[in-house]
Design goal:
The protein is built from six helices and eight strands, in the order βββββααβαββααα. It is mainly alpha-helical. β7 and β8 form a beta hairpin. Keywords: Membrane, Transmembrane, Transmembrane helix.
Amino acid sequence: MTDLKNPIEVHPEIVVVNGEPITLELEDENTAIQTRKGEVYVKGVNIYGLQKYYRAQERNVKFFLVVFTVFFLACAYFIFVETANLWSWDKVEKASFQWLKTLAGKLYYQIPVSSGFGLFVFLSFLNFCRLGRRKRDICHEHSLCQQKYYPSTLTPLITRKVFSLFAWRLNIFYVGLCLIGLGLLSCIYAHICAGVKNISGTFSMKWYTGQINSECDYDDWMVWGGFFAIGGGLFLLMSSNPFLKYRVWKVLRLFSMSEMTMNEELKSRVFRLNRRNKVIVTVIICIAGAGIYLLIRKFVLSLFSRSFAYSRHR
């Protein structure tokens, strides 16, 4: 725990953290050391909370690094054995995973499967390197805090952490919104198809599900699928958004910030991400709803034209 009763007088210095210069300051007794609700703030930075945050982050990244290392080695062994069985290498000891051996001797199976295995190993190695760099950065910033060098603003590491929380929050929000929109469109399409079948008098279109050995109207499947999509979207909106919002608030309060008062660079990145997700969801909903527009376009246009004509005559 940092001793704040007898702080050492240190002038502001420029320290390079993750390739970016940031200002680290240590305040003396004559500067503003504030205490609010049992927490100590030095120039707007919660000292005890920041140290606790770095300890938790360092502990978590070490745990995930060990778990991912074990997972990566297990996957590498599995991929090596299955690739050997796939290409019929006799010198490799055969394991219990023999399902790929049936594809041996068929290049149109061997090449895509081997390429997929190689891509998985490459992406796993990149993720392993990313965790290693994150552990190095966290340990470096934590050591600076232990030496009583405290950041006066968000560090690059904490900025990336906050942005990743915002990214998860926005992505999950728009995925839920997209599911709700697609679910509503599915229900509308189901009712349109049911109406067309009733008008035409044909009921021959069925879905035959071999696993269940029964047949169902496809419009019923569309309705139930739409209901499940709407329920899943609402669950994502109600469960994830408050939790991630609390996580963002918990990190920003270490620097006496909020979503409204955080720095402009972070605001700009969050704004661009929000705009990108909004455009993607709008395009998906518009493409999925294009059929509804084509079906009811004449009705909507005639309705509006008659309404305008009635208004002009009056």
